[in-house]
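Good day; I would like, with your permission, to put a structural problem before you. A protein sequence and the structure tokens that stand for its backbone fold form the material at issue. Thank you for your consideration; the sequence and its tokens are set out here:
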Amino acid sequence: MDQKALITLEYPRILADLAELCQFAPARERALGLEPLTDLDQVLVLQGETAEALGLLTLHPGTSSGGARDLRPITADARKGMILEPFRLLEVRDTLIAARNLVRMMSKLADEYPALAELILQLPDSPGLVNEIGKVISDQGEVLDSASQKLASIRRDLTASHGRIKARLSRMLKRPEVAKHLQEAIVTQRNGRYVLPLKAEARSAFPGIVHDQSASGATIYVEPQSLVEANNQYRKLELDERDEIRRILAQLSARVAEQALELNEAVEILTRFDLALARGRYAAALNAVEPKIHPFPKRIPAGNPGVVLRLFAARHPLLDPAEVVPVNIVLDEDTYALIITGPNTGGKTVTLKTVGLLALMAQTGLHIPAAGRSEISLFSSVYADIGDEQSIEQSLSTFSGHITNIISILDKADRRSLVILDELGAGTDPQEGAALARSIMTYLLERGITTLVTTHHPDLKVYAHATPGVVNASVEFDLESLRPTYHLTVGLPGRSNALAIASRLGLPEDIILSARATLDPADLQADDLLDEIHRQRKLAEDARAALERARDDAEKLRLQLADRIEEIEQERLTELEGARREARLELEELRAELREIKAELDQGGSPKEMLEELEEDAAQLEEDLSAPLPRMKTETLPEPMGPIQTGDRVYLRSLGKKGRVISLNGEDVELMVGNIRVRARKADLEHAADSEESPLEVVPRTVVRTPEGIESPGMELDLRGQGADEALENLGYFLDRAFLARLPWVRIIHGVGTGKLRTAVRNDLKNHPQVDHFEPGKEGEGGDGVTVVSFGE
């Protein structure tokens, strides 16, 4: 990438913002040195990692490489044979623990975030080194007694020696012949040896070795002669402890040197992971989206390079999101050059920078601040000439500076490049500048180079209108407020507002009229026509926005009504269920009374025919109470959904069931009804209100076809209340129609009762030629009061 263009488009500021979001020092360092990539596969990998990181941080906001440290200087010193300090060994341990925790976490989330999981699962596993460091060094950075048996023994001897010396010195302090010479009644150390602070004049009266004296000379620190040997022994033990600690640390340092390559690899993987998380955080901060990135065609035809540039609601990432005005930059497949005109400070330059910067961000693996469906090509290079190129040092004017830069761009740009030129042809005679601008544009177009240009030359508006591959665009200006709106309109050139602005600011009307009289009438007519086009376009946009708001309001109202209807239905079902509970209690009381009456009749030998009829009526009532409560069939509220499409939830009239469309083929539709795949005609379908539940992801048992001319009898047959002969006749007719309609299965509702009807139905099913098998209904389907019948192929 052209380094000057990166600076011109403020790409380093993007990297600085990204580095601030890194939590791992090597990742911050890597972020500041990033450059846009030109390999599509690499860019897609980074974009995928960014998307996963954004999702991971959304659901697991605490995710980080916390505790990890940059081990590269540590491993370098270890490989040189240096002995590592305890705190540096703890950094090695903490980094390995952080890596181990990430491996455990991402192993569980591998299905949701495969790219990040694949990266983290490459981290080397070094449990041995973690345990070794943990056994030797405490969290406070101290070498533990348990580091070796020898160290434990030395420290026990040190403790004992220290105790003996302190005890002897304490006794000595209490002796009158010593106490009178003490400056203070304390025991202290000098040069690693225990001493007493004596008055300077007692030097000759107290035998011992002087190790130090106070700044004033009034106090001397004397090691009593009787303690010299004990102090010698104590000092030797201290040196033994130091040497043993150095040996232990040297051993651990050698282990770090042995695993230096694995540790450096872990740092590299953690760097990539932390950088991916930083890209995810940046995407969240910018409310950015993943762009679709297109390669240029391998064989680029003459003229149009095949560029894709469709940015919707694009925002400059470095401007205040609350103030920046989003712009739509959309080029059709026949266009690869855009000429933007409009007033100064109207947002032309910001638009150019937005496109260039978003292209660079996308090729760095960053999501871009734009709306969904945004697409952009993968450019081999981006060149930009923006701003004041005047150089006093080189004696170059603004015009000369621009031309020098453009010459360099024309020499390096190719058909896969993006060229951005601000104020083309400015800074010189308008006529010559316009001619030069047209020639530069023609040069770029003939070479098939994607070009974005801003200009004030009216000639370039005509050039864009008349030249294939080029389109006009303009930034709007509000004549009422005399301020730019910053809205970009692709397809229309900018208007000349000089006379209108001068008139609004109060320039005398006779001067305005005189100026208009000197203008070409054709130009005035063109401006008036352009004003009318802009006005009509604004009216159309306002009308469309109003329609969209009305549609949104209607959809909200429809959803509110649907929710209210559902609430009413739930209230109705609740009331009915309460009534059923009361009926069941009364039924139980009736059964108890019947049992008592039956017992009395048995004792008296009275006839029981009437009692049996009452029992059958009670059984029938019990069946009715056990049947599932039917939901009221309410008309589905219409949805503004247009034609039936894949994924729509629909109502299949012939089966009386709802399903979800999985494929379309002309007038033929394939849909899932529960766990059954059904083929039907579009004419047999209508939109249904979508439910919250998602379609079942199961392998269908069979396929239902509803051929034209054969009407489905439905999926259920209710035989309750019918005699055996009548029920079997209706059953046979229903089964024949269901089989001809190629239904996979049906439900026969016969109730529980005395079991006579159920037995008759199931005996008949055993001998039916089209029945493959049958089984009682499951819980929630009616249990033993229902038989589910499946047909053979």
Remarks:
- Confidence is low (pLDDT under 50) at residues 389-396, 634-640, 691-709.
- Residues 521-604 form the longest helix (84 residues).
- The radius of gyration is 44 Å.
